Description:
The chain has two domains: about 1-105 and about 250-270, Rossmann fold; about 110-245, Probable inorganic polyphosphate/atp-NAD kinase, domain 2 (Tumour Suppressor Smad4, Sandwich). It is an alpha+beta fold. The two termini are about 35 Å apart. The protein is about 20% helix and about 35% strand. The longest helix has 13 residues, at about 50-65. It contains six helices and 19 strands.
Amino acid sequence: MVDAAEWLTARGASVVLAQEEAAAAATGARWPTAPREGIAKDVDVVIAFGGDGTLLSAASAVVHANAGVPVLGVHLGHLGFLTEVRRAELTDALASVLEGRTWTETRLLLEGRIERAGSIAASRFALNDIVITRGTLSRMLELDVSVNGEHMSHVRADGLIVATATGSTAYNLSAGGPVVHPSVDAVILTPIAPHTLTNRPIVLPASAEIVLRPLLEGAPTDVVATFDGQFGAPLQSGDAVVIRRADRVLQLLRTTTRTHFDMLREKLNWNR
């Protein structure tokens, strides 16, 4: 991060660092800082250094600020399906940004709200997925699932993932769900370790409104709704988790000619 900030500053760019990252890197007063939640309002591009979790955190800050600026991911983590730029490519990528030799990919976002006793207890956006799981106790979770007001199924599993095509290579993939190209306008429902073999992943149109009703006995419970692994909200008896396509999107900034299939071959060791 510091190397990139120095490189950009030397070429006349104005750099703003997230406060937490600046404190961890002990940058002092070399560059202005801003809270992560508000930094997107002060910049033209957000650059995230790390793995997919770091990019998801940056994306959350951009989306919840409704800033509309693109996000560029620099891969410093392990697997990484979202962070495009490798460490060795950083200088070339930054030059591309300054010279306007970039393009963006538009990614679908989910909006999830928790309805409780006639009011909204929580509402968040998600780029990858919204997941209903149990906490510390490993008991079976039961959920009623409806789509566009029509009952779809009763799921008995350790949890349920509602993923975008972008998130199909995240928790969804680990749980046995399909890999979906990010340009596909769809959402995926994938049970986590289903207790009935006939509970299988299903792909739905992104226009669908999905309502999940966990069947809970009393309150409080250890059932949680998580949004991109960045935010979690405990659920109570009678809650409904309503998920629909968000009214905003995320722009991922691209600087290389590496395609989605190039990434899949590399990360999943296809054809090797």
